[in-house]
Structures are given as C-alpha cells and as structure tokens.
Amino acid sequence: MHTSDAGTQRRSRLLAGRLHRSSVFPWSRSGVAPHFDRGDWGVSIVRGILMVLLASRAGVAARRNRVAGVSLVELMVTIAVLAIILAIGAPSFIGVFNNNRLATQANQLVAGLQEARSEAVRSNARVTVCRSDDGAACAADSGTWARWLVVAADGTVLRDNASKAPVELSGSVASLVFAPDGRARAADGGLLDATLVACIPTTQPGENQREIAVRSGGRVSIASVNGAGECP
C-alpha cells in the first residue's frame, strides 16, 4: 500500500513537470511543481465548469438589465425637467426670433436704398425708393411702408418688397429720389435727411425698433432703438 502511494506521487510529479515545460497552466510558470493528490483533477475540472456557467449567467443578466427601459417615475421626472427648461428659455427664443425679423427687414431696406443709388449713378437718371399701395406704382401720400418699390426713371419696377408680420415699416417721407450724382434731395433741392423705421410692437427684445437713417442725401445707417414695446 505504501509502495502504491509512492508510485502515485512520483507520477504526479512527472505530470507537473511536463505541464511546467509546456506553460499551459499559470502555476507552471512559478518554477515549483505542485503536489497532486488523487481526485484533485476532477475537483478542479468541476470547479472550472461551474465558474464558466456562473460567468455566462451573469453576462446574460447584465445584458437583460441593459435592454430594460426606464421606469414611469424616471420618465415623468425627465419630462418635468424639460418643461422647466423650455419655460425658462422660451422668452429668450422669442427675443432672438424677433431680433432676426427686424434685422432682415432693415437689411432689405438698406439693400434697396443702395441699389437705387447705384442704379441712379449707372444710368445717369433719377431712381426712386417709395411706399406703394398696389406694388405697381409709388403712392402719392405718406403712410406705412408695408410695401415699397425701387422704380427707375421710366417707371420700371426694379424691386418690389413687402414687410412680413409682425414687422411694421413706417417712414418720415413717402419717397426718396436719388439723382444721377447718387444723392437724395428734398423738394427744395437740399440734401435729404429721412428716417425709416422697422418695428415690432413687443418688449422682446427691449430694442424693438430699427431706425434706417439717410443723412446728407446718401449716407445710410441702422440703429437699434428701445421703443418701450410700441411702434411709431
């Protein structure tokens, strides 16, 4: 019996030495051949299989948890937070949109004035920027500039523009006439000073007016004005 146990231990040492040389198992790199008793191999194999199965089940459970959706409470909290953010940011968005509307209308009017001036010099003829009631001819009297034209000396309409609500356009004159020298003049022949206003009746933004000023007969500028929510 003693001889049999000694033979079993000798075979175990030989097997451990082979595993060490092949570097298959981590313990073979330590340089020390472990002692194997009978039944150790079976226990190790069973333990390894159980660990693999447990790891596989844990991975499946983790994937299932990731796929699961949010709860009703989480969804309601998210919606409430979004509602608060929108309530705070909505006034700012309205102000930005109105600013863009005012800038667009003011820039279009400036472009029309510059076109009229350039065309007057190019054609050596008078070109008129005026308000219009029908889009075909200049209006005879002053009033709102909801629709305005750029008209050549022969009556050809070079540009036809209309303001878009909620923007309102008004002016201190009914028309501006550019002479061949590129200057706009008043009825008495002097250089014209006129002001056109693009406005939205709102307090968002605070500067709800854009004044388009024509000075010395041709110098055009834009200024933002706080109209206290009202239009001229």
Task: Provide the descriptors you would attach to this structure in a database record.
2 domains, minor pseudopilin epsh fold, four-stranded antiparallel beta sheet, alpha+beta, single chain
Low-confidence stretches: 19-39
Do you know the CATH topology of the largest domain? minor pseudopilin epsh fold
Strand order of the largest sheet: 3-2-1-5
Q: What is the number of helices?
A: 3
What does this entry look like structurally?
The chain is built from 3 helices and 8 strands. The strands form 2 sheets. Strands 3-2-1-5 form a 4-stranded antiparallel β-sheet, with helices on one face. A 4-stranded antiparallel β-sheet has the order 4-6-7-8, with helices on one face. With 232 residues, it is an alpha+beta fold. It is elongated, with a radius of gyration of 44 Å. The model is unreliable at 19-39 (pLDDT under 50). The protein has helices at 2-22, 40-67, 72-123; strands at 127-131, 147-151, 157-162, 168-171, 175-178, 194-199, 209-215, 219-225. The protein has 2 domains: 2-58, no CATH class; 94-225, minor pseudopilin epsh fold (3-Layer(bab) Sandwich), CATH 3.55.40. The longest helix is centred in the middle third of the chain and has 52 residues, at 72-123. Strand 7 and strand 8 (219-225) form a beta hairpin.
